[in-house]
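JOB MANIFEST
job_type = single_chain_structure
chain_count = 1
residues = 626
[input]
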Amino acid sequence: MCGIVGAVGARNIVGVLVEGLRRLEYRGYDSCGVAVYQDGALRRSRSTARVAELDAQVRADKVEGTTGIAHTRWATHGAPALHNAHPHFSTGPSSGADPLADAQRPGRIALVHNGIIENHDELRAELQARGYVFTSQTDTEVIAHLVDSLYEADLFEAVQQATLRLRGAYAIAVFCRDEPHRVVGAREGSPLVLGVGTQGGEMFLASDAMALAGVTDQIVYLEEGDVVDLQPGRHWIVARDVTGRHKRVEREVRTVLAHTGAAELGPYRHYMQKEIFEQPRAIGDTLEGVQAIVPELFGAKAAAVFDAIDSVLILACGTSYYAGCTAKYWLEGIAKIPTSVEVASEYRYRSSVPNPRTLVVTISQSGETADTLAALKHARGLGMRHTLTVCNVATSAMVRECELAYLTRAGVEIGVASTKAFTTQLAGLFLLTLTLAKLRGHLDADAEAAHLKALRHLPAALQAVLALEPQVIAWSQEFARKENALFLGRGLHYPVALEGALKLKEISYIHAEAYPAGELKHGPLALVTAAMPVVTVAPNDTLLEKLKSNLQEVRARGGELFVFADADTRIESSEGVHVIRMPEHYGALSPLLHVVPLQLLAYHTACARGTDVDKPRNLAKSVTVE
């Protein structure tokens, strides 16, 4: 989602700011901007185009400075328009003679912000009563004016006071015309890191350590309620205690390798295509070192935690939620442990029945998903203290907040539509299933060996599935002309159908819905015509014959079927039935294979329709607001 970069040093840092924004483009945005202290005043450039256009703009306008902040915005409050783009300036209270002219004059506070301020209307009314003039619809401009109203020659103190008035989630970076060699940051519910530079006393702020790759690998992860003061060669951090007072604290400086090479596109047309084809490697890396099924795969305390639980609650959003839905079938079918899966954004707002012996499992690619973090805190607040996360970022808030963790090793995922994160999450969740099954006496040595063998073979099996790409491309030409599609699956493969439908609508903008195939006759069959392609996941499992009956229901209504079938299902191509044969049946792990051609179908359909595959409209990669 929105991205922040800030810097203070001795050289012109505009290039660092813009390059940091470029590294954050994968998060999704609809406007961008940069502000610096230049020639005694605040100066900024903003754009509703891409970072490349902003770069050209700041070069042409000769925007330069040793102190500055930059931002990519994903619109929440206010349309994606130039006047709503960050950075925002304060102007001070209006004189009253000409408020519009007052609003246009350069101010003294420049600020960027990720998150949502819940009491912005209340603060806006208060500031307007004091004469402040607003030029945007954003909640961010409220913070800029609030800091200005509290400023008394000490920006660090003003920001601390301002944070005490804010309700909601935020990460901010701010600097002041009157203190030109100082940048102040603060966070609450939204990620922010401090980067300690390696030359000229430079100091940095960013919403993601990846933004600082190539500049510094010395990173401090700021914690909830922290406010940080950056000046050349030094920094201070204060934390808010339970009384609301700020006290000086020390935070560990970590060496973080951002793996800049992962962002290179190489021979692929889009990052999404690259990431689809990286899945064999990503799965191999995620499973590296797994020689036996032992609790220690999830942390040193795992054995004691797993012994203390009698149920599982999975909390996640979007694609990660579908991974959790798949895991429910495994956990209940193999480990015989009661499991529920909740959409994180809904869970915290309904009355539920907490069980202190529940293992709360969160799933997140970034580990910063705001809804999932909030749901985790809610579950803990209800007395469920046993927590585990399946996450792709070792330094994320999710990993720090949970008692146990399984780190997937998917590498950086830049395409907004998740692919390799999903399959590596499934791998981690399957290991969790086997571990709980073994501890509960439902996994003998022979079954353990068989599952480990299947896991080790996954990279090779995925390579065979990827070889189906030419056949999928042929189907995509047909799908590109459609505006609606149905996806069907049964049992373990229903969540895979859900994920396939999500991928298609995310990047091709074709309306797609997924149903359990047995539900067709209970309503969705009314939609089936020759114009509605019906995509079916057809593994050779115990529900195959039931699924074949559902396919006949579609054909009887003139529907056109596109079936991804295991080789031994005896589903043949015929008029109105198109079949792509999967290389092998893969039992319980079949979802990891069957989802890949669905990813390819969505990708190539989007390419055929000419959409922006890696940056689909209205979406963001890391959803760090509620």
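[summary]
The CA atoms of residues 222 and 519 lie 48 Å apart.
The longest helix spans residues 445-466.
exit_status = 0
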